[in-house]
UniProtKB/TrEMBL annotation:
Keyword Transmembrane: yes
Localisation per UniProt entry: Golgi apparatus membrane
Protein name: Glycosyltransferase
EC assignment: 2.4.2.-
Keyword entries, A-Z: Cell wall biogenesis/degradation, Glycosyltransferase, Golgi apparatus, Membrane, Signal-anchor, Transferase, Transmembrane, Transmembrane helix
Gene Ontology BP annotations: cell wall organization
Family (UniProt): Belongs to the glycosyltransferase 77 family.
Membrane topology: Single-pass type II membrane protein
Organism lineage string: Eukaryota, Viridiplantae, Streptophyta, Embryophyta, Tracheophyta
GO terms for cellular component: Golgi membrane
Length: 375
């Protein structure tokens, strides 16, 4: 595999504080989205209902997913898929990039990318832009490693970022837009999970973030000091340890230790018991498994007040850390709504501090992401 070319990061754009010259139109736009809050709330409820109908996942976590038939138990007894191969060049390259990107405490920020999300103006540009325009987030780009699933994604990554890693795809083409729950999509999600286990085994803790999550504020102050695995939610019940929280696998902070390594191995091997489901559904099923308690894994669910998404938005722009374009099917809808969300955020940033505190601002999104339908 070719060594990634190092590119200098462009300087993060400075954000003028105080009242800029163009404050008036921005203020007007802000006030416009304030008035929309009243409309957005009932729609969010409708939206949630639509999601529940179409999702494979049990939205309230009451029912376990159908498990496998007794005949299939054979599969489970086959050897584990842990990698014990001698270090190849890909592995050495991974060590190199993780070492360069990691923080002092061996933490990295990871995202995955395929060609469909990599094209200019697409998801990855918005993702990187959010770090540059967020509050105390631009320096976090020094710790971000973009994991490319195909050659196009890798080449595009190298144009816009320091740390790119091409994950061997072994004949599978992950480059196209993957429709939710197609076999290609599932394969990509499980490959990602297996990769994250490997990163933990190498001794690196990580924040994994889908690239369709905008980073508006530094998330570290909002993590729990004593959680092994902290995970964002599609639906948050108001208690960080309640297993009825519906986790979203798109954003999580995982500390490398024997409990998390064991849990990731267990999670990955559980795909055999739940064929046809993706990692997030399987997480929401196995979080109830007594084995997880036996491991001693401490799971913390992150509040949507700080780590929100289109399923359940972070309502207060004075608090929001991240917003995920979840509960959204189709790349066009996603990009459309992500762009509006970035505009809302930049409008908010341009307001004078007194107005930031005074106004109850909210998002103009979801719009096209409102209906959770396969197109
Ligand atoms: C949060 O949930 C846990 C686990 O269900 C429970 O033990 C605890 O009492 C709950 N805390 C509050 C404040 O409700």
């Amino acid at each position: 595999m070719a060594k990634p070319t190092r590119h200098t990061l462009t300087t993060p754009s400075a954000h003028p504080r105080g009242i800029p010259k163009r404050a008036l139109p921005r203020l007007a736009a802000a006030l416009f989205f304030v008035t929309l809050v009243g409309v957005a709330l009932p729609l969010a409820v409708l939206h949630r209902a639509a999601v529940s109908r179409h999702s494979l996942e049990d939205p309230w976590g009451r029912y376990p997913l159908p498990s496998l038939a007794a005949d299939d138990e054979e599969i489970l007894r086959s050897p584990q898929t842990t990698r014990r191969a001698p270090k190849d060049s890909e592995d050495l390259e991974l060590d190199r990039v993780l070492q360069k990107a990691s923080m002092k405490d061996n933490t990295v920020i990871l995202t995955t990318l395929n060609a469909a999300w990599a094209s200019p103006g697409s998801v990855i540009d918005l993702f990187v832009d959010s770090f540059r325009s967020g509050v105390r987030t631009s320096s976090l780009l020094n710790h971000l490693v973009i994991i490319a699933f195909d050659g196009d994604a890798y080449r595009q990554c190298a144009k816009i970022h320091h740390y790119c890693f091409a994950l061997g795809t072994e004949g599978v083409d992950f480059s196209e837009e993957k429709r939710f729950l197609t076999s290609g999509y599932l394969e990509m999600m499980w490959k990602r999970l297996d990769f994250l286990r490997l990163v933990l085994e190498k001794g690196y803790s990580f924040i994994f973030s889908d690239a369709d999550i905008m980073w508006f504020r530094n998330p570290f102050p909002h993590f729990y000091p004593n959680g092994d695995l902290q995970i964002a939610c599609d639906h948050y019940v108001g208690n960080a340890t309640d297993l009825r929280n519906i986790a979203n696998g798109g954003f999580n902070y995982v500390k490398s230790n024997e409990r998390t390594i064991e849990f990731y191995s267990f999670w990955y091997s559980s795909r055999l018991r739940y064929p046809g489901y993706h990692d997030q559904d399987v997480f929401n099923a196995i979080k109830h498994d007594p084995y997880v308690a036996d491991i001693g894994l401490e799971i913390k669910f992150l509040s949507t007040a700080y780590f929100g998404g289109f399923c359940e938005p972070s309502r207060d722009l004075n608090k929001v850390c991240t917003m995920h374009a979840n509960c959204c099917i189709g790349l066009r809808s996603k990009i459309h709504d992500l762009r509006i969300m970035m505009e809302d955020w930049k409008n908010y940033l341009s307001l004078p501090p007194s107005l930031k505190r005074l106004l109850t601002l909210s998002w103009r999104v979801p719009q096209n992401c409102r209906y959770y339908v396969q197109q």
